[in-house]
Amino acid sequence: MIRIIALIILCVTIWAVGCSRLPDENINNNDQNSNIQNEQPENNDPIVNPDDTQNEPETTTAEGRITEITKNGGELVSFKITDEGTGEYLFNVTSDLNSEIKLGDIVTVTVDGDIAETSPMQATAKEISVNEEFSGAVQTTDIYTVTGISAAAIDEKIRNTGHIFESFTNYEECQTYLEENELTDKFNETVGDMDITTLTDGFFEENDLHIFICDERTVANESEKEVYLQDGVLFLRLNTTTTEAALRNSSYELYLIPIKKGTEVKDGYILRETDLSSNISEPSADENLPEDVQGEGSEETAPEDNTEDQQETTTDPSEEAGETN
Predict the structure, then answer these.
(1) Rounded distance between C-alpha atoms, residue 241 and residue 108, angstroms
(2) Taking the model in full, what pTM does it have?
(3) What is the CA radius of gyration of the chain?
Protein backbone atom coordinates (compact mmCIF):
# COMPACT_ATOMS: atom_id res chain seq x y z
CA MET A 1 0.00 0.00 0.00
CA ILE A 2 2.79 2.33 0.87
CA ARG A 3 4.34 1.63 -2.54
CA ILE A 4 1.15 2.51 -4.34
CA ILE A 5 0.85 5.80 -2.45
CA ALA A 6 4.51 6.61 -3.23
CA LEU A 7 3.95 5.88 -6.93
CA ILE A 8 0.92 8.16 -7.03
CA ILE A 9 2.87 10.98 -5.36
CA LEU A 10 5.73 10.54 -7.87
CA CYS A 11 3.35 10.76 -10.83
CA VAL A 12 1.68 13.86 -9.44
CA THR A 13 5.08 15.49 -8.87
CA ILE A 14 6.26 14.76 -12.42
CA TRP A 15 3.01 16.17 -13.87
CA ALA A 16 3.27 19.31 -11.78
CA VAL A 17 6.88 19.94 -12.85
CA GLY A 18 6.00 19.44 -16.51
CA CYS A 19 3.12 21.90 -16.38
CA SER A 20 5.20 24.50 -14.62
CA ARG A 21 7.82 24.52 -17.47
CA LEU A 22 5.39 25.05 -20.37
CA PRO A 23 4.89 28.81 -19.76
CA ASP A 24 8.67 29.32 -19.71
CA GLU A 25 9.05 27.66 -23.03
CA ASN A 26 6.27 29.83 -24.48
CA ILE A 27 7.95 32.91 -23.08
CA ASN A 28 11.27 31.92 -24.63
CA ASN A 29 9.61 31.29 -27.94
CA ASN A 30 7.93 34.69 -27.78
CA ASP A 31 11.22 36.35 -26.92
CA GLN A 32 12.93 34.71 -29.90
CA ASN A 33 10.16 35.81 -32.24
CA SER A 34 10.39 39.33 -30.86
CA ASN A 35 14.15 39.41 -31.41
CA ILE A 36 13.73 38.25 -35.01
CA GLN A 37 11.20 41.02 -35.65
CA ASN A 38 13.44 43.64 -34.03
CA GLU A 39 16.39 42.57 -36.13
CA GLN A 40 14.52 43.27 -39.45
CA PRO A 41 15.73 46.54 -41.13
CA GLU A 42 13.43 49.51 -40.99
CA ASN A 43 11.89 50.68 -44.31
CA ASN A 44 11.17 54.40 -44.10
CA ASP A 45 10.85 54.97 -47.88
CA PRO A 46 7.59 56.70 -48.82
CA ILE A 47 5.02 54.70 -50.66
CA VAL A 48 5.03 55.73 -54.33
CA ASN A 49 1.72 55.79 -56.10
CA PRO A 50 2.30 54.69 -59.73
CA ASP A 51 -0.53 56.98 -60.81
CA ASP A 52 1.39 60.07 -59.60
CA THR A 53 4.01 59.76 -62.40
CA GLN A 54 1.29 59.35 -64.95
CA ASN A 55 -0.27 62.68 -63.91
CA GLU A 56 2.85 64.65 -64.88
CA PRO A 57 2.23 66.44 -68.23
CA GLU A 58 4.29 65.21 -71.17
CA THR A 59 6.24 67.74 -73.20
CA THR A 60 7.31 67.93 -76.84
CA THR A 61 10.17 69.93 -78.35
CA ALA A 62 10.84 71.34 -81.81
CA GLU A 63 14.01 72.98 -83.11
CA GLY A 64 14.44 75.40 -85.99
CA ARG A 65 15.15 78.96 -87.11
CA ILE A 66 12.72 81.77 -86.30
CA THR A 67 11.49 82.90 -89.72
CA GLU A 68 8.43 84.96 -88.76
CA ILE A 69 7.33 87.03 -85.79
CA THR A 70 3.82 88.46 -85.46
CA LYS A 71 3.12 91.37 -83.13
CA ASN A 72 -0.02 93.19 -82.11
CA GLY A 73 0.53 96.65 -80.66
CA GLY A 74 4.19 95.82 -80.16
CA GLU A 75 3.42 92.66 -78.16
CA LEU A 76 4.56 89.26 -79.45
CA VAL A 77 1.55 87.04 -80.21
CA SER A 78 3.05 84.25 -82.32
CA PHE A 79 6.15 83.14 -84.17
CA LYS A 80 7.17 80.56 -86.75
CA ILE A 81 10.23 78.39 -86.88
CA THR A 82 11.45 76.53 -89.97
CA ASP A 83 13.20 73.18 -89.83
CA GLU A 84 14.79 71.89 -93.04
CA GLY A 85 13.64 68.32 -92.53
CA THR A 86 10.24 68.82 -90.91
CA GLY A 87 8.85 72.08 -92.26
CA GLU A 88 7.12 75.00 -90.52
CA TYR A 89 5.91 75.29 -86.93
CA LEU A 90 3.56 78.05 -85.76
CA PHE A 91 3.65 78.76 -82.01
CA ASN A 92 1.20 80.93 -80.13
CA VAL A 93 2.58 82.89 -77.19
CA THR A 94 1.03 83.34 -73.73
CA SER A 95 1.50 86.39 -71.53
CA ASP A 96 3.74 84.53 -69.06
CA LEU A 97 6.34 83.67 -71.71
CA ASN A 98 9.18 86.10 -71.03
CA SER A 99 11.77 84.72 -73.46
CA GLU A 100 13.48 87.31 -75.65
CA ILE A 101 13.66 86.13 -79.27
CA LYS A 102 14.45 87.74 -82.61
CA LEU A 103 14.26 86.86 -86.28
CA GLY A 104 16.95 84.49 -87.51
CA ASP A 105 17.72 82.91 -84.13
CA ILE A 106 17.92 79.10 -83.99
CA VAL A 107 15.82 78.00 -81.01
CA THR A 108 14.39 74.97 -79.23
CA VAL A 109 10.71 75.32 -78.29
CA THR A 110 9.06 73.21 -75.56
CA VAL A 111 5.29 72.71 -75.47
CA ASP A 112 2.92 70.78 -73.20
CA GLY A 113 1.55 67.71 -74.94
CA ASP A 114 1.81 67.14 -78.67
CA ILE A 115 2.21 69.51 -81.61
CA ALA A 116 -0.80 69.50 -83.93
CA GLU A 117 -0.08 67.93 -87.33
CA THR A 118 -1.46 70.82 -89.37
CA SER A 119 0.14 72.98 -92.05
CA PRO A 120 2.02 74.65 -90.52
CA MET A 121 2.22 72.46 -87.39
CA GLN A 122 0.81 74.36 -84.40
CA ALA A 123 1.09 74.53 -80.60
CA THR A 124 1.43 77.00 -77.72
CA ALA A 125 5.00 77.68 -76.62
CA LYS A 126 5.84 76.88 -72.99
CA GLU A 127 9.59 77.57 -73.03
CA ILE A 128 12.07 78.89 -75.61
CA SER A 129 15.84 78.46 -75.47
CA VAL A 130 18.14 80.16 -77.99
CA ASN A 131 20.72 77.77 -79.46
CA GLU A 132 22.34 80.24 -81.87
CA GLU A 133 21.81 83.97 -82.20
CA PHE A 134 21.38 85.60 -85.60
CA SER A 135 24.40 87.63 -86.69
CA GLY A 136 23.92 88.22 -90.41
CA ALA A 137 25.73 91.06 -92.21
CA VAL A 138 23.69 93.47 -94.35
CA GLN A 139 24.33 93.17 -98.12
CA THR A 140 24.09 96.17 -100.44
CA THR A 141 22.08 94.98 -103.44
CA ASP A 142 18.93 95.62 -105.44
CA ILE A 143 15.78 93.62 -104.74
CA TYR A 144 13.37 93.04 -107.64
CA THR A 145 9.82 91.86 -106.94
CA VAL A 146 7.55 89.92 -109.28
CA THR A 147 3.97 89.61 -108.00
CA GLY A 148 0.84 87.69 -108.96
CA ILE A 149 2.58 84.40 -109.77
CA SER A 150 0.29 81.34 -109.93
CA ALA A 151 1.82 77.95 -110.59
CA ALA A 152 0.50 74.55 -109.54
CA ALA A 153 4.01 73.12 -109.82
CA ILE A 154 5.16 75.00 -106.71
CA ASP A 155 1.95 74.84 -104.64
CA GLU A 156 2.81 71.72 -102.65
CA LYS A 157 6.36 72.76 -101.83
CA ILE A 158 5.19 76.18 -100.66
CA ARG A 159 2.61 74.57 -98.36
CA ASN A 160 5.21 72.29 -96.80
CA THR A 161 8.12 74.68 -96.34
CA GLY A 162 6.55 78.15 -96.46
CA HIS A 163 9.01 79.42 -99.08
CA ILE A 164 11.26 78.35 -101.96
CA PHE A 165 14.87 79.40 -102.46
CA GLU A 166 16.84 78.86 -105.68
CA SER A 167 20.24 80.09 -106.91
CA PHE A 168 21.44 80.42 -110.52
CA THR A 169 24.93 81.09 -111.83
CA ASN A 170 23.93 81.45 -115.51
CA TYR A 171 20.97 82.28 -117.71
CA GLU A 172 20.36 78.70 -118.88
CA GLU A 173 19.86 77.44 -115.30
CA CYS A 174 17.43 80.25 -114.52
CA GLN A 175 15.42 79.83 -117.71
CA THR A 176 15.15 76.05 -117.26
CA TYR A 177 13.84 76.43 -113.72
CA LEU A 178 11.21 78.99 -114.77
CA GLU A 179 10.00 76.76 -117.60
CA GLU A 180 9.89 73.55 -115.54
CA ASN A 181 7.82 75.28 -112.85
CA GLU A 182 5.48 77.04 -115.29
CA LEU A 183 6.70 80.48 -114.23
CA THR A 184 7.98 81.89 -117.52
CA ASP A 185 4.76 83.35 -118.99
CA LYS A 186 3.63 85.10 -115.81
CA PHE A 187 7.15 86.27 -115.12
CA ASN A 188 7.42 87.92 -118.53
CA GLU A 189 3.91 89.33 -118.30
CA THR A 190 4.61 90.91 -114.93
CA VAL A 191 7.79 92.64 -116.00
CA GLY A 192 6.09 93.98 -119.13
CA ASP A 193 7.92 94.08 -122.45
CA MET A 194 11.22 93.09 -120.86
CA ASP A 195 12.22 89.54 -121.79
CA ILE A 196 13.99 87.27 -119.32
CA THR A 197 16.89 87.00 -121.77
CA THR A 198 18.06 90.45 -120.64
CA LEU A 199 19.37 88.73 -117.51
CA THR A 200 22.00 86.86 -119.50
CA ASP A 201 25.48 87.76 -120.72
CA GLY A 202 26.80 90.74 -118.74
CA PHE A 203 24.46 90.19 -115.81
CA PHE A 204 25.61 86.65 -115.04
CA GLU A 205 29.22 87.54 -115.74
CA GLU A 206 29.16 89.80 -112.69
CA ASN A 207 26.36 88.33 -110.55
CA ASP A 208 24.65 85.17 -109.42
CA LEU A 209 20.87 85.39 -109.22
CA HIS A 210 19.03 84.21 -106.09
CA ILE A 211 15.24 83.85 -106.08
CA PHE A 212 12.88 83.64 -103.10
CA ILE A 213 9.27 82.54 -103.66
CA CYS A 214 6.63 82.95 -100.95
CA ASP A 215 2.90 83.55 -100.47
CA GLU A 216 1.71 86.85 -101.83
CA ARG A 217 0.23 89.03 -99.10
CA THR A 218 -2.29 91.15 -100.92
CA VAL A 219 -3.77 92.76 -97.79
CA ALA A 220 -0.43 94.05 -96.56
CA ASN A 221 2.16 96.79 -96.91
CA GLU A 222 5.87 95.98 -96.98
CA SER A 223 7.70 98.89 -95.43
CA GLU A 224 11.24 97.54 -95.51
CA LYS A 225 13.30 94.95 -97.42
CA GLU A 226 16.86 94.00 -96.47
CA VAL A 227 19.29 91.24 -97.39
CA TYR A 228 21.68 89.59 -94.92
CA LEU A 229 24.41 86.97 -95.29
CA GLN A 230 25.62 84.68 -92.50
CA ASP A 231 27.85 81.61 -92.92
CA GLY A 232 26.83 81.14 -96.56
CA VAL A 233 23.10 81.55 -95.85
CA LEU A 234 21.21 84.39 -97.53
CA PHE A 235 18.37 86.03 -95.60
CA LEU A 236 15.68 88.27 -97.09
CA ARG A 237 14.06 90.28 -94.29
CA LEU A 238 10.60 91.75 -94.89
CA ASN A 239 8.70 94.04 -92.53
CA THR A 240 4.97 93.78 -93.17
CA THR A 241 1.87 95.52 -91.81
CA THR A 242 -1.36 93.62 -92.35
CA THR A 243 -4.96 93.40 -91.18
CA GLU A 244 -4.94 89.58 -91.29
CA ALA A 245 -3.13 87.33 -88.84
CA ALA A 246 -2.75 84.41 -91.26
CA LEU A 247 -2.38 84.77 -95.00
CA ARG A 248 -2.22 81.76 -97.28
CA ASN A 249 -2.99 82.86 -100.80
CA SER A 250 -2.99 80.95 -104.06
CA SER A 251 -0.64 83.44 -105.70
CA TYR A 252 3.02 84.05 -104.97
CA GLU A 253 5.70 86.72 -104.92
CA LEU A 254 9.17 86.28 -106.39
CA TYR A 255 12.09 88.27 -105.01
CA LEU A 256 15.10 88.42 -107.35
CA ILE A 257 18.36 89.26 -105.59
CA PRO A 258 21.66 89.61 -107.48
CA ILE A 259 24.78 88.93 -105.40
CA LYS A 260 28.30 89.53 -106.62
CA LYS A 261 29.77 86.47 -108.28
CA GLY A 262 32.11 84.48 -106.07
CA THR A 263 30.05 85.06 -102.90
CA GLU A 264 29.26 81.70 -101.28
CA VAL A 265 25.51 81.19 -100.91
CA LYS A 266 24.34 77.67 -100.07
CA ASP A 267 20.85 78.29 -98.65
CA GLY A 268 18.29 81.03 -98.11
CA TYR A 269 15.50 82.01 -95.70
CA ILE A 270 12.81 84.68 -95.67
CA LEU A 271 12.60 86.50 -92.33
CA ARG A 272 9.30 88.33 -91.92
CA GLU A 273 8.14 90.57 -89.09
CA THR A 274 4.38 91.15 -89.28
CA ASP A 275 2.57 93.93 -87.42
CA LEU A 276 -1.17 93.42 -87.06
CA SER A 277 -3.24 96.54 -87.66
CA SER A 278 -6.92 97.39 -87.82
CA ASN A 279 -6.19 99.76 -90.69
CA ILE A 280 -3.53 99.92 -93.40
CA SER A 281 -2.92 103.49 -94.46
CA GLU A 282 -2.78 104.36 -98.13
CA PRO A 283 0.74 104.71 -99.57
CA SER A 284 1.99 108.23 -99.91
CA ALA A 285 2.06 109.99 -103.30
CA ASP A 286 5.85 109.61 -103.51
CA GLU A 287 5.54 105.83 -103.23
CA ASN A 288 3.56 105.71 -106.47
CA LEU A 289 6.12 107.63 -108.49
CA PRO A 290 8.31 105.79 -111.01
CA GLU A 291 11.71 104.81 -109.65
CA ASP A 292 13.65 107.09 -111.97
CA VAL A 293 11.65 110.09 -110.69
CA GLN A 294 12.49 109.31 -107.10
CA GLY A 295 16.17 109.14 -107.87
CA GLU A 296 18.80 106.46 -107.76
CA GLY A 297 19.80 104.59 -104.62
CA SER A 298 16.53 105.28 -102.79
CA GLU A 299 15.63 101.67 -102.18
CA GLU A 300 13.89 102.28 -98.86
CA THR A 301 11.55 104.86 -100.42
CA ALA A 302 11.07 102.94 -103.66
CA PRO A 303 7.50 102.01 -104.57
CA GLU A 304 6.14 98.62 -103.74
CA ASP A 305 6.23 96.52 -106.86
CA ASN A 306 2.88 95.80 -108.48
CA THR A 307 1.75 94.50 -111.80
CA GLU A 308 0.56 97.82 -113.24
CA ASP A 309 3.73 99.74 -112.35
CA GLN A 310 5.97 96.99 -113.69
CA GLN A 311 4.11 96.77 -116.96
CA GLU A 312 4.68 100.49 -117.49
CA THR A 313 8.37 100.21 -116.55
CA THR A 314 10.73 98.33 -118.85
CA THR A 315 13.92 98.95 -116.93
CA ASP A 316 16.53 96.25 -117.44
CA PRO A 317 17.41 94.73 -114.03
CA SER A 318 20.85 93.81 -115.31
CA GLU A 319 21.57 97.50 -115.95
CA GLU A 320 20.23 98.53 -112.55
CA ALA A 321 22.19 95.79 -110.85
CA GLY A 322 25.29 97.03 -112.62
CA GLU A 323 24.75 100.53 -111.28
CA THR A 324 24.38 99.30 -107.73
CA ASN A 325 27.15 96.76 -107.80
Answers:
(1) 27
(2) 0.66
(3) 39
